Give the backbone structure.
Amino acid sequence: SGVCARSSRLQSETMRTRALVLLLLACFGAECYGQAWDLLAATANLDRKKALLTDIIVQIEKNYKEFSNVTKAKRDTWFTSSNDFDEGRGTSSEKSINACGNGLPSGFNPVCDPFLGLTQACECSGKKKVDKVTVKPLDKLKDVNSVRNAANVAAFASGDSISAKYKRAEGLQDYENKLMYFGSVDGVLAMYPGVLWPYTKDEKATYGTEYTCGKNYDPRYRPWFLSASNGPKNVIFILDSSGSMTQSSRMTLLKKAASMMVDSLTMADYLGVVSFAAEAKTFLNLNFLAPAAKGFRNKVKDYIESLSPSGGTNYEAAFKQAFKMADVSYKQNYDSGCQTVYVFLTDGEQTLGSDGYAGLVQNRKFKASSGGSEDNSAAISRKEMFIIIGLGNDVAPSTPAGVALKNMACLSGGIFESVPDAISSDADSKFTTEGLILKAMGSFSRYFQTTNAIQKRDVVSYTEIYEGATFPMEMTTAAQSVYDKSDPDRWKFMGVVGIDLVTCGIEKAIFEKNPGINNPPAWPEETKFKGCMCADTYSYTTASGVVQKYDGVCTTSDWPNAWCATKNCGIKVEGNAISTGWWADCKPFGVRSELEDLLMKSGEECSQTQIDSCEIEALRPEAYRCGTSSIPALSATCNVTKQALNNWVQIPGFDNNMFTTDTTWAANPQDLAGYTDADNIVWSSDTSQCDQCVNTKMVPQCALPAKCGASGIPPIFSSMSDGAGAILSPCLSTCFLSAVALVLHMI
């Protein structure tokens, strides 16, 4: 019996020792270093979203094909007589619903539905909607043909056939799919379920015009639209901050437009900003691009807002700095891996630097095509495109400065745009000019849309996860381009379909499958560079000159993302601010980062193939085309006029002079003469007055704002440091404490 007792004790101690070893191994095992988490269910869920998008897109493309093939006489009576196509548009006259408005005629029966949140219009019991598509035109100050464009989209993207497709998508997956919409190449937004965008007096006070409806909103410059229609890219904005930018509110208007373009990017893009006057400067003196994640975008917008016009104008310094940023990023593989576009904006002639700036840009274009960087230290492994913008009357196309800018664009195979000064100082004139600057800066988007149409890129993209402004829930937008495919050899870009889907249910499912996914990794921590690990210890001299020491932690000091020092990998540092001479972004961890990584991978496909010179010539505004001076030279078979017809800036359909008001096409034509303040409440989307946490009818319930604590996912432990000292990774801390507890138990 004694032998058996000793054997039992030995067996028990052996089992405990094994358990301790296993637990300690777990502390340094896959969960702490990162592992291939089980994301099969999440992937399958996202695949279902792709199928729903395809279903909607096929219907829109079918509708447009039938609409475009009817006779002009049939189109001219589209909303006023019966037609065989898409019966039951909403009323007996088949009119659509103008999304700009504060009311609907009887028969539409709007309801207050809590699945989009609680709003003031419903006395905090839901959001008012109808089971129809509503169509929102652009503001007329942005496009004089906005009413016609809205009628055009209403004709093929707002009838019962498309509403049925949206309704099918809305009912799946416990209402994960919220607002669904089509944004057109000419700026129209068609939404389901039908919500109204109320006219407000507040915007009248802001803009000095009649009552307006989402005046600043343009779907073409939203992240979901650009991510789907452009794909990943590198964008470097080169912005003039010389003294002349004080004239005609140029700098003020530039700041607004540039900030909107920065906000249109996503974390799949890489971003750089160069400001120039007598010298060239960058945000944080960066010599490389950075992922355009929300935190970085916000910092860049702050930098743009801080620009103060002064000094001369040095094109040469600006381009050299921009090329350096690109070259450093290419060499370190710290970029999107896709094409790079330079957006250069100036309001005057170069007054400082060498006169050879045009040759510098032309030489860069040649090297980007044949290999070799600006300083000949590395090959240019990315295709590059130049957008050159002249802002103000001093660089109008007829001026010497304007001619010089156009020639620079032609010599670099780029596109020249000209934006005149505002015709007066009133708010409407400034708003119109701001829109023109935005359109010019967004020329790179039309370049990518054309490239992708020619190459038949048909990829679903997702935005990073964000909290909606009028729908207070965390979501991503699944989006895909829509094309006119009537010519199978040359698709034409029409717009983008998007589905806002809440992510909490997907995140919750991932967490339940992988309960250790929110545990921070063990040190040394992995970085975003494969195989590159954080240094055990390092020091960093901050921008303010303070020396901070780190031991086993990442930091966010002077950078919007968590980073660490590395050894001989990552990004090499100029100077000695980082003790190891190298650094890298720490690899994010947790449910949110795993899901966002999955979302970004969906749309990461891109091509380094550039469209030919004839296609680029067709993209140039007719007044600024290069002709025989185009680089590379136009081929003898180039038919620019024909090619230009393939690059839609307006979807063909109704004549431009057919619609001047919404009376013909909208069942709820807007008469603003009798509006009062009380009318603004009828369809108000204001959520700030409502306690969203009491919304027990929200489906899924976890879609409530984060402050409501309904996600069901515990928060991520942080292993960040502000430089005050070392912090043991919580993953290791938890494991260590568990191990100690087991040892004590064995004792």
Observations:
- The radius of gyration is 29 Å.
- The chain has 21 helices and 24 strands.
